[in-house]
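ugh ok fine here u go
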Amino acid sequence: MTMNFGISLWSMGKNQIESLMRVSEAGFRYVEMWPEPWRTFEEDLNDLLDAINVYDVEVYSVHAPFSGLDISDIDEGIRRMSLQKVLRSLEVAVRLGCTHFIVHPSARKYGKKEDYEKAKSLLMKSVEAIVKKAEDHGVTMSIENMLAPPDGFRVGTKVSELKEIIAALRGGEVGICLDTGHANYNGLEVAEEAKEAGDLLTALHVNDNDGRGDQHMVPGEGTIDWPKFIEALKDVNYNGVFMLEIYGGDRAEEKLRKSYEAASKLLSI
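structure:
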C-alpha cells in the first residue's frame, strides 16, 4: 500500500521545536502541528518556520486549538470566542504551509437532547465560517470524531453523525478526520467507521487503546484490528497521510521509534 505516514508533534517534546527535532531524527517527514499553548505557538511562529526548514519536514496538517474552547457551545459568548481563536489559528496554519486543518466539533456533553440539537445547529454555523476561510487558502478542513460520554449527549462521536452534519451545511466542502482511538473507546469497529466515512475521509489520527481509555498507544499495543483497518482504507481509496497521534511523554524517543516501525509494517500489508 503506497501511503505516506507522519506523526503529530503533540507530547513529543517540551515545545514544538524540540518535537520537530525528535521526529525528524526518528525518520518522519510529515507532521501535524499542535498549537497549544496558543500564545507560545503564535509568538514562536518565525522560529517554527526556520525549524521546519532545518529539520526538513512538511507540515501536512495543523490541529486547531481546543483547550477551553468549544465551537458548538450553546453559550454564544463561548462559541464566538472559540470560533475566533480557531480562525486565528487557521491563519497561522496557512503560514506554516499546511494543507489540512483538523477541528474538534465539541467539548462538552449535554443532559438534555434539545441542548444537544441546538449545539449541532451552532456547530454548522461555526463550521461554515471556518470552511469558507479554509477554502480561500486552499486548505481542507476536517471535523474529528470525539470521545462519547458515559451518559448524556455530545456532538460528533460517530462518523454517521458527522456525515449528517456535513450534508446539512449550506456551503463548502468539509471532510472527516477519523481518530481511531476515539472510535475504539466508543465501542465502534474502527474499520467500519472508515468505510462509513468513505470519500469524506480526508485525515487520520492513528492511535491504539484497550477500549478503556483514550491512551494514544502505538498501533499494535491495544485492541484495534489494524489489518482490517488498513483494508478499509484501501476500500475507500484513502490517499492522505497516515498520521499517527501517539503519547510520547518522558519516553518520546522510544515511542517515535516504535511508531515509525509500526507504521512502516502496517503500510507494507
